[in-house]
Design a protein that fits this description.
The chain has 136 residues and is an all-alpha fold. It is built from eight helices and no strands. The protein has two domains: 71 residues, lambda repressor-like DNA-binding domains (434 Repressor (Amino-terminal Domain), Orthogonal Bundle); 41 residues. The longest helix is centred in the C-terminal third of the chain and has 24 residues.
Length: 136
C-alpha cells in the first residue's frame, strides 16, 4: 500500500475525521451552541489535537444523531438505530387509538359496575383489564 493511501486511511479513522463527517454542513459555531462546548475545543477535536471525554463524545453523538461507538471508536455503523419509532407514523397512531379506545371502554365498564370505585381501584382495574389479566 502506498504511503499516500496509508495516510488517507489513517486520517479517515481519526475522531476528528469522523466528527467532521457527522457534522456535514453544520458549522463549528452552530455545533458549539447546540452542545455547549466551546468552538475552540471543537476545532481541537476536528484537528485531532485533543479527544473528548466520554461524556463530551456522547453529547456530540447525541447532538449529531450518530452512533456513539462509531464516533468514539470508528466501529459499527454511523447511523443510530431508532429505538423510538416515530410516534406520529400512521401505523403507530392507529395502534394508540385502538389502545385508547380499549382504556375508555374499560373505564366505562368498571364505572358502571360500582358507584363506590376509588380512583386507585379504578386505575388498577383498568390496567389489569387492558393487559388482559383477570381480576382476582
Amino acid at each position: 500500500m502506498s504511503r499516500k493511501k496509508q495516510k488517507k486511511d489513517k486520517k479517515k479513522k481519526t475522531f476528528g475525521s469522523r466528527l467532521k463527517t457527522a457534522m456535514g454542513d453544520m458549522s463549528v459555531y452552530k455545533l458549539a451552541q447546540a452542545t455547549g462546548l466551546s468552538h475552540t475545543i471543537l476545532h481541537k477535536y476536528l484537528q485531532d489535537v485533543s479527544t473528548p471525554s466520554v461524556d463530551k463524545a456522547d453529547e456530540l453523538a447525541t447532538t449529531l444523531n450518530v452512533s456513539f461507538v462509531w464516533l468514539a471508536k470508528g466501529e459499527g455503523s454511523q447511523k443510530i438505530k431508532n429505538k423510538n419509532p416515530d410516534i406520529l407514523a400512521p401505523e403507530n397512531l392507529k395502534k394508540i387509538t385502538v389502545d385508547l379506545h380499549a382504556v375508555v371502554s374499560a373505564i366505562e365498564d368498571i364505572a358502571k359496575k360500582s358507584e363506590k370505585t376509588t380512583p386507585e381501584s379504578l386505575a388498577r382495574d383498568v390496567a389489569l383489564r387492558c393487559m388482559n389479566i383477570p381480576d382476582r
